[in-house]
Write a structure and sequence with these properties.
The chain is α/β, with parallel strands linked by helices. The protein is built from eleven helices and 14 strands. The protein folds into two domains: 192 residues, Rossmann fold; 65 residues, Lrp/AsnC effector binding domain/regulation of amino acid metabolism (RAM) domain (Alpha-Beta Plaits, 2-Layer Sandwich), CATH 3.30.70.920. A hairpin with a 4-residue loop joins strand 12 and strand 13. Helix 3 packs across helix 4 and helix 8 crosses helix 11.
């Protein structure tokens, strides 16, 4: 079942003669000189319980899309359904079922961490008893309880990001929208955020994630859509995206003693065996199956592995090639 259904959505912006976006209330002198399609007729579905990655270069349409999905912007054309509800016509109901961590932090810096959570809970109509229970539980889980009375202007960036997640989770949402949740964080803070995302996803929360960090996308996402110039150019699993653009996968092996290279070449998943100064370089079709096959073979021989290393395509390389080719992978 789908948690999110996006059907042929378009979002265009009118620009004035200075190239600035026209807004309601602009005078007649601010005539439209250009219409820009920030999102250009895209469709996709997000399955319940998955972590769905939404990647693209700057200006590709990621943030505009997520703002339409969260009811901040109205689509020029098309329809977005969140858990079966029209996202624009049912904004309040949708907000009560979802949590949102935007790219630009919306923490209230003059409030303490505790006051931020109480304020969010009140906005969404959560009872005082439930607000207190949820806030205490979240602050303890996110390691912020000891700093709950501190004004958030004194929080580190990592603490602010964790507080934003707390705020998004106050309503026990079924879907989390995360726009660059680890941007600018140190390694330790980034790991904390990633672990928390995994934990809530394992509890059944659907996650819609935009990020520029390919390692985050590769580690967390079940499927990834890549958008460029307002259009989705590909959608698949991280593993399949990497396979689409790879030149080859390979395993380097060094042995304590000799090995029969011809017998290794005859193994089912081995494409080619090249001799190196230290051992052999094996080109394979599937890295995981090939390692299992090689280990099984070596167990039957009087051979010991000294060193084994793999060469696999990276999501970042695949992303750059897909963007360069406009989604074409052949």
């Amino acid at each position: 079942m789908s948690a999110i259904i996006v059907n042929n959505i378009v979002k265009h912006f009118e620009l004035d003669k200075r190239g600035r976006q026209k807004r309601m209330g602009d005078g007649k002198s601010q005539k439209t000189t250009k219409i820009v399609r920030a999102v250009d007729d895209i469709s996709f579905e997000v399955r319940k319980g998955e972590i769905f990655g939404f990647l693209g270069p700057n200006g590709a349409g990621k943030t505009t899309t997520i703002r339409m999905m969260t009811g901040v912007l109205r689509p020029t054309e098309g329809k977005i359904e969140i858990l079966g509800l029209d996202a624009w016509k049912n904004q309040i109901a949708v907000k009560q079922m979802t949590g949102n961590v935007p790219e630009m932090a919306n923490v209230y810096f003059s409030f303490s961490g505790w006051e931020n959570l109480m304020f969010v809970g009140e906005i969404y109509g959560i009872s005082k008893k439930e607000r207190v229970t949820n806030a205490e539980s979240l602050l303890r889980k996110f390691d912020l309880y000891e700093k709950r009375a501190l004004k958030t202007k004194k929080y580190s960036k990592g603490m602010k990001q964790r507080l934003l997640l707390c705020m998004a989770l106050m309503t026990n949402p079924q879907i989390l929208f995360l726009d660059e949740p680890t941007a600018g964080l140190d390694v330790q803070s980034s790991k904390i955020i990633k672990d928390l995302i995994r934990e809530y996803n394992e509890r059944g929360v659907t996650v819609f994630l935009t990020t520029h960090d390919m390692d985050v996308a590769n580690e967390l996402c079940d499927r990834i859509a890549i958008i460029n110039h307002g259009k989705i150019i590909t959608l698949d699993t991280p593993e399949n995206l990497k396979k689409l653009t790879q030149d080859y996968q390979a395993i380097d092996l060094q042995f304590v003693n000799g090995v029969n290279k011809q017998e290794i070449k005859n193994l089912r998943n081995i494409s080619e065996v090249q001799e190196t100064q230290e051992g052999i370089h094996v080109i394979v079709e599937d890295i995981h199956e090939s390692i299992c096959e090689l280990v099984d073979y070596i167990k039957t021989q009087d051979v010991k592995i000294k060193q084994l290393s793999t060469h696999q395509p990276k999501l970042e390389e695949a992303f750059l090639k897909i963007i360069e080719r406009g989604g074409k992978t052949d």
